[in-house]
TrEMBL record:
Name of the gene encoding the protein in the UniProt record: prsK
Protein name: histidine kinase
InterPro entries: GAF-like_dom_sf, HATPase_C_sf, HATPase_dom, His_kinase_dom, Sig_transdc_His_kin-like_C, XrtA/PrsK
EC identifiers of the protein: 2.7.13.3
NCBIfam families with a match to the protein in the record: PEP_his_kin
Enzyme class at the top of the EC tree: transferase
UniProt keyword list: ATP-binding, Kinase, Membrane, Nucleotide-binding, Phosphoprotein, Transferase, Transmembrane, Transmembrane helix, Two-component regulatory system
Residues that span the membrane, as ranges: 6-25, 37-57, 63-84, 105-127, 133-152, 164-186, 198-216, 228-250, 262-279
Cited SMART domains: HATPase_c
Entry annotated with the keyword Nucleotide-binding: yes
Length: 710
């Protein structure tokens, strides 16, 4: 039954590869990849047919089938190499790498073929069975390494056209690797692997067909990075390690006697645990990366990778970890270190410790801004190697290193941090995982990254300072509004004091003084309550008569010149507002009109209603304002035309409150002629008729135009 299943399995592979070869030969032979895949499909069909023929007719013999299998493996590796045909454009070094990989593959195939031919033709057995199996495993590992390289160096857009052939060839190579590794371990090829092999090959043919149909996709350019070399080396090492592990387990089982199987399990478990320790060790990885950089590349760093890594670290706007710790980590990663300390200049000109990573700070950490080290780093952008300094201080002009640095026993590099051309801070990096030979390339990259990270640190510091300044500004602004209100109350009380000696015997003056004092007390009490609990003192609104408020304003400001006058005879105008707040903001506008108008001028108030709203016109014949001032400065806080005597928040406060209760303020003015403030407020009872309500098509006329007509 196993033989029948094997015949069916490999017959399916024969038919599938023949159909693939016909498809490619019919339309898709323009690219080198298509031609090599046609050859691989044809050779694979012949190889699968030889296995079917051997099962049915016991022909051909073992060596011929072995040679066909080697040729089939070589054909699929040629497909992978064809994908890298444009590698010559990547530079001379990349061409050499491609040549080495190609030569290694060809050499291995030729050695295995030569040994097979000699044994078949002349009976000279150069390789035993186990060595041949090891050779097959080596070919599978080489194929997997090439697939990994193609996928890693293929851009995200190119992967869509490469994924089918990569998945297909990787599956072929991985299946052969596991089959031969199992055979090496147990001394024979398992029937389950052998019978399923043909079906596996047949099921992968559609993937190759989809790939060759998409002829518009260009092959990937071969680029070798340090990480790619590391991963390929790790994969190859893992394969070789597993081979020796299988051999070791086999001999342990053979030589162990009755305890053989238990010793084999113990040996394999311990070996795998040791392998995992090696793979996950950061120190081992650092040593391998340094070895790769020193022996395979002209430059130590993959600058694209380093720059992208730094960008990802600095683009994170969160505080986990804080920015100073991320800066230490970025600089430490450049020299394979995970520890460091950062100092930045404080307001006193000294350098305060900002963060320490994997290093225990000493008792005193502040560096004097006038120390010899700071002056040295300000004059020279040098990176100080403390290991060299301890061996030869003369090399650094017998420089004195502060105790705040030397107390870190694991300190290694002192890196200056520059913002533009000014010295901003310094970073101490701890000892690396592996020994690093520093040269100009290390120092140049560290200096550039230090400047970039220093810009981010300065930006973060400026943002913190701005945040604190905005908080102080908010407090100052609130204080300014309070001072503005207090200033009004002081003026009222001061007027009472000035007139007290003349009108102390006047009962009406006494009554007015009591009312004014009560108003001042109530105003100051509300102000104190608002300061204590601002969230609980929202402005309460009620239905009030705007005409009554205007009458109170006229009476209150009648002692100042020019005396404001009411034009017309309006009826009640009910609105929703807080009486004190509305009286306060409208009083600011009336007072501003009086201050801007000479005593011989006029300040008039006009009240009109129309279509659900009431409008209060406050007009003066004072100095007026320019259009630019109205547009950009009038309603801007702390902008005043009164010099040091004005706070510049009366108009702003008035506009904000009028907006809050649903109204608007419009201003028209002309320098030397006067100004008119139009305060529009919604009526509390918009449908109620009034004597001054105009018709639906009438418009409210400005008092200025009425006065001009009269």
């Amino acid at each position: 039954m196993a033989t029948d299943l094997g015949v069916i399995s490999h017959s399916a592979a024969v038919l599938s590869y023949l159909l693939l070869a016909i498809l490619i030969a019919g339309k898709y032979l323009r690219r080198e990849v298509d031609r090599t895949m046609f050859l691989a499909a044809l050779v694979s069909a012949i190889w699968a047919f030889s296995l079917v023929s051997q099962s049915l007719w016991q022909q051909p013999g073992f060596f011929l089938r072995y040679l066909l299998e080697l040729i089939r493996d070589a054909a699929w590796i040629a497909v992978l190499l064809a994908l890298l045909r444009d590698a010559g454009r990547s530079g001379q070094f990349m061409g050499k790498v491609r040549t080495v990989l190609s030569n290694a593959t060809i050499t291995l195939v030729l050695l295995l073929l030569a040994s097979g031919v000699l044994e078949y033709a002349f009976g000279i057995a150069l390789l035993d069975g186990k060595t041949k199996v090891v050779g097959q495993i080596a070919l599978s590992l080489l194929g997997l390494s090439l697939v990994e390289q193609i996928w890693r160096n293929c851009g995200s857009l190119g992967r869509s056209s490469m994924k089918y052939i990569c998945v297909g060839t990787a599956t072929l190579m991985a299946f052969d690797f596991f089959m031969y590794a199992d055979a090496l371990l147990f001394g024979q090829i398992a029937d389950s692997f052998w019978d399923a092999r043909g079906f596996i090959n047949a099921f992968l043919v559609p993937l190759f067909a989809v790939n060759v149909i998409n002829t518009r996709k260009q092959p990937v350019e071969f680029q070798l990075s340090r990480n790619a070399v590391y991963h390929v080396g790790t994969l190859s090492f893992a394969g070789i390690y597993l081979i020796f592990l299988a051999l070791g387990g086999y001999y342990v089982k053979v030589m162990g006697g009755d305890w053989g199987e238990a010793l084999q399990v113990l040996f394999i478990t311990l070996a795998l645990a040791a392998f995992l320790i090696l793979v996950t060790s950061r120190r081992v990885r650092a040593r391998i990366m340094i070895f790769i950089s020193q022996n395979f590349f002209d430059y130590k760093y993959d600058y694209r990778d380093e720059w992208l890594k730094m960008t990802r670290e600095l683009a994170d706007l969160g505080d986990a970890p804080p920015l100073p710790e991320r800066v230490i980590r970025i600089l430490g990663d450049l020299v394979d270190s995970n520890s460091g300390v950062l100092w930045l200049r404080d307001e006193d000109g000294n350098f305060a410790l900002q963060a320490a990573t994997n290093m225990t700070p000493p008792k005193y950490t502040t560096i004097d801004g006038e120390s010899e080290l700071i002056r040295f780093l300000q004059e020279r952008e040098w990176i100080i190697n403390l290991a060299e300094y301890r061996q030869d201080p003369v090399r650094y002009n017998l420089l004195e290193i502060p105790d705040a640095i030397t107390k870190f026993t694991d300190g290694w590099l002192v890196i200056p941090m520059y913002l533009d051309n000014s010295f901003y801070g310094l970073t101490l990096i701890g000892s690396p995982y592996a020994k690093v030979e520093l040269n100009w390339e290390n120092f140049d990259l560290i200096k550039v990254v230090a400047r970039q990270t220093c810009n981010l640190l300065a930006q973060a510091d400026a943002q913190n300072r701005l945040s604190r300044a905005m908080q102080f500004e908010a407090v100052s602004k609130a204080s300014a509004f309070m001072v503005h209100d207090l200033k009004t109350l002081i003026a009222q009380l001061g007027l009472l004091v000035n007139n007290a000696h003349r009108h102390r015997n006047n009962p009406e003056f006494i009554d007015d003084m009591i009312r004014t004092t009560e108003h001042a007390v109530r105003k100051m009490s509300n102000l104190v309550d608002h300061i204590r609990k601002p969230e609980e003192n929202g402005d309460e609104t009620a239905t009030i008569d705007l005409f009554a408020v205007v009458q109170q304003l006229l009476e209150h400001h009648s002692n100042d010149q020019p005396v404001p006058q009411l034009v017309g005879n309006p009826d009640r105008a009910l609105i929703h507002a807080d009486a004190d707040q509305l009286r306060n903001v409208l009083g600011h506008l009336v007072k501003n009109a009086q201050d801007a108008t000479p005593p011989t001028g006029e300040v008039t108030l006009t009240l009109k209603t129309s279509q659900g709203q009431v409008v209060l016109f406050i007009q003066d014949t004072g100095s007026g304002m320019s259009e630019e001032f109205i547009k950009f400065q009038l309603f801007k806080p702390f902008e005043s035309t009164k010099g040091l005597t004005g706070m510049g928040i009366g108009a702003y406060q008035a506009r904000e409150y009028i907006r809050k209760i649903g109204g608007t303020i419009d201003v028209t003015s002309e320098p030397g002629v006067g100004s008119c403030f139009s305060v529009r407020l919604p009526l509390a009872q918009p449908n109620a008729p009034t004597s001054q309500q105009t018709t639906e098509n009438d418009e409210i006329k400005s008092p200025k135009s009425i006065n001009t007509a009269s």
